[in-house]
Amino acid sequence: MRLVFAGTPEPAVPSLRRLAASEHHIAAVITRRDAPLGRRRVLTPSPVAAAAEDLGLEVIRTDRLDEVATERIAALAPDLGVIVAYGGLVREPLLSVPADGWINLHFSLLPRWRGAAPVQHALIAGDEVTGASVFRLVPELDAGDVYAEIEHRVAADDTAGDVLGYLADAGAALLTDVVDAIGAGTAVATPQAGEPLFAPKLGDEDGRIRWDEPRDAVLGRIRGVTPEPGAHTTIDGARLKVLAARVAAPDAPDLVPGAVALHQRDVLIGTASAPVALGRVQPAGKGAMAAADWWRGLRGAAPVAGS
Hints:
Blueprint: E1 2-7, H1 13-20, E2 25-31, E3 35-37, E4 42-44, H2 47-54, E5 59-61, H3 67-74, E6 80-84, E7 102-106, H4 118-124, E8 129-136, E9 146-153, H5 160-184, H6 215-224, E10 231-235, E11 238-242, E12 245-247, E13 260-263, E14 266-269, E15 276-278, E16 280-283, E17 289-290, H7 291-296, E18 305-306
Helix pairs in contact: 1-5, 4-6
């Protein structure tokens, strides 16, 4: 089939590469415009744009799938539109441009966690199982019938980045199988069943650690916002990024929420239940370091973490 592919971040790249290696033809790749990155704010192509150019594919850069974008895509006469984390909504009349419509690889088991940050919200909520779904796009957000899905059991130390990495690769194979089935006329989609939950985009405030929550909720939030937008707290008024944390040893002392203490070689912070042990941290203006090294650099009385 003749495809148009829409995607932007790194988790969309495995799907693009797998489809490019298939028997189908990618007429163009749609991605968001180059964005300023780093301290010097250098304009940088999206991961999908870079991969598409490496594959020799036509790239359409646009932050909105507006009338101009619709006209360019319609001129390509695609059979099917494929979207993986593009970062914008496909609305009519673009929704009806491809002869076989649009399909979306979404990183959750729909209807749970519709929206922009499904993996992050799944980990914050403590889900033990998540997955990926390929579904038909409809005007309502992530509400179309599902062609196929895969499940993934979340490991105790998985971060959102870890889970996304796995689902990006496994989902690419799932997506390609669905494209093959649509091309062969054998694809069957099933309506979503159950109460939907929504996963809006996360911001800096979502990364703020609430030490007055129970330990498992604290660890779930840290893992769910790693690597983006990142977990953080304040220690005696200074911002501290928490890059990794874990369950404290069974003999760790009880601490009130936010209290910081050194136990043996572990830096502990109290929660509403049991304490957590910090793994790696990053103080403001400094590089990442082991929590024990950060502790040795402190001066004065035992610090207290703010919520």
